[in-house]
Amino acid sequence: MMLRDLEQVCEIEKSIYGENCWSRSSFVNELNNTSSVLWVLEDRITDQIIGYAVLWIVDLDGHISNFAITKNRQAQKLGEQMLIYLIAKTIEWNLQKLTLEVRVSNLKAQKLYQKYGFLIEGRRPKYYVDNQEDALIMWTPNILDSNYKNFFETQSQLLISSLTKSQNP
């Protein structure tokens, strides 16, 4: 992600998260934070940004602090592809675990995270300011462990296989 991306990113952010979304200045702060890594996902045909992610690196862990796919491109496995990319990068960087918070009501996201080994490890009461909803705290096991790497590789290959089948019926 770069400064020039922020107009599109902020539009997506507001459409997904409403009035309690991150501000432009929040994203600028993250771009200037040496402990943050930010990505955008672009449509190859239109060059429009269709998703983004923010990862904080804290000691030997990664914290996915923001993650979104534009509404009109959801349910196309783009979020799953971006999550695979984030996990692969954190493995490449030798981070040990990943964590994130997710709304208790967001069962779809929880299911995706669980598919890649995230486990519910705690709860933050009234975490979301818009409706005082609790957040579940999810963590991966050690992603550098060979068992996790084998699990992750299998999950990634299953996604690739399903995408290949859907493109070549």
Question: In terms of topology, how is this protein built?
Answer:
Layout: H1 6-17, H2 24-32, E1 36-42, E2 49-58, E3 61-69, H3 78-92, E4 97-103, H4 107-115, E5 119-124, E6 135-139, H5 146-167
Parallel strand pairs: 3-4
Antiparallel strand pairs: 1-2, 2-3, 4-6, 5-6
Describe, in short, the structure shown.
This protein has 169 residues and is an alpha+beta fold. It has 5 helices and 6 strands; from the N terminus they run ααβββαβαββα.
The assigned CATH architecture is 3-Layer(aba) Sandwich
Q: How many domains make up the coordinates?
A: 1
One letter per element, helices H and strands E, the order comes to HHEEEHEHEEH
Provide mean pLDDT, rounded.
93
Beginning-to-end CA distance, first to last residue: 35 Å
Number of strands: 6
CATH H level, superfamily name = Gcn5-related N-acetyltransferase (GNAT)
CATH class: Alpha Beta
Shape: globular
Strand coverage percent: 25-35%
> Could you tell me the radius of gyration in angstroms?
16 Å
Question: Total helix count?
Answer: 5
Structural class: alpha+beta
Characterize the biggest β-sheet.
6 strands, mixed
CATH fold group: Aminopeptidase
Q: What level of helicity do the residues show?
A: 25-40%
In the predicted model, the low-confidence regions spanning at least 5 consecutive residues are none
How are the strands ordered across the major sheet? 1-2-3-4-6-5
